[in-house]
Amino acid sequence: MQRAYLSKLMELCEKDSNVLHLVADSGTGYDEMLKRSLPKQMVNFGIAEEHMVAAAAGLATAGKIPFVYTAGAFLAYRALEFVRDDVCFQNQNVKIVGMGSGLSWCSLGPTHHTTEDVAVLRAIPNLMILSPSTPNQVAACVEQAYAHKGPVYIRIGMSNEKEFFAEDYKMPRNGQDVLCEGRDVLIFTTGSILEEVMEAVETLQAQGITATVINVAQVKPFDTTFLYEKADRVNAIVTVEEHNVQGGLGSLVAEGLSDRGIGKRLYRIGLQDTFATGYGKNQKAVRKENSLDGSSIAMRIREICQ
Predict the structure, then answer these.
(1) pTM over 0.85
(2) Would you put residue 243 in left (φ > 0), alpha (ψ -120 to 50) or beta?
(3) Which of 44, 110, 241, 263 has the most CB atoms within 10 Å of its CB?
(4) Cα gap 54→61, rounded to integer Å
(5) What is the average per-residue pLDDT within 260-277?
């Protein structure tokens, strides 16, 4: 996902000199490539995320389009006041890109995990939140962020995510894709955990349980069209996210059901108001430790459908 993000950003920088790449010692080869090619469009602030966000707000007032890029946990939590007051309160045209969504920083533990960012940031007015699941969807989200006039937060993974979308993929108007249709369960998911969800769906199908899967790339604003259209056609509604179930996608779907007065039970799969355990391993292993791998998701949905 990082490669997809930086490749698309370099395209935008070459096309528009107002696009800037702001980093806080992210240290990738693609950063160095952009710096060599377009030195006036990249600034490294070092480990000073708050200052980077504040500077981005100032640059936006001068007509620049800064893309602020570093570890998601340091943007969503450490720089939160600057995101809120300097960027969103002023409604500045700043794009905030948090790499390492969910448990991507699997070896470094909860200080680096980004498992509460949606909950923290979606309460802030004026902020669009995008949560792509694959590299091609990352590129589409960067294009959407560039076209949108106002603050945007994009959360991206960094673990060679499996691709489910065509190379020329474009974001749907409602920011959601129907990946498959089934009669038993309606699943909403977001972010790179999509590959675990699709693995679970294949397992369930072999056991006679079919699922409709909605991939949510645009978390805020959250479009309820598919929720309202498909809720009555299935026996159960499930959300799956590599995030705390408190305040994340599960809460968004619950709010949508409540607003419409739909009394169907919702089951939320994610971190159950806890920090992840088992870190220090690869992401797949950490997901399994926290019952967020494909087999664990399939087992939980099978229990729900019985």
Answers:
(1) yes
(2) beta
(3) 241
(4) 11
(5) 95
Joined together, the tokens standing for residue 102 give 């969910």
Residues 288 and 181 in one domain: yes
Residue of 86, 60, 59 lying closest to 149 (CA atoms): 60
Mapped onto helix, strand or coil, the DSSP state of residue 17 is coil
In a domain, 255, yes or no: yes
Written as six digits, the tokens of 223 are: 């479009």
- Average pLDDT, integer, range 94-120: 94
- pLDDT reported for residue 186: 97
Instruction: Report if residue 140 sits inside a domain.
Output: yes
Q: Which residues make Cβ contacts (< 8 Å) with residue 282, sequence separation at least 6? A: 106, 107
Q: Are residues 201 and 73 in the same domain?
A: no
Q: Letter for the amino acid at 148?
A: H
3-class SS of residue 267: strand
Structure tokens at 2: 């990082």
**Domain assignment of residue 100, given as a range:** 2-156
Stretch 46-63: mean pLDDT: 96
Q: Name the helix (H) or strand (E) containing 144.
A: helix 135-147
Instruction: Please list, in sequence order, all residues whose beta carbon lies within 8 angstroms of the beta carbon of residue 20, skipping any fewer than 6 positions away.
Output: 13, 41, 42, 43, 56, 59, 64, 65, 66, 67
Q: Please report which confidence band the pLDDT of residue 306 belongs to, taking 50, 70 and 90 as the band edges.
A: confident
CB 45 within 8 A of CB 51: yes
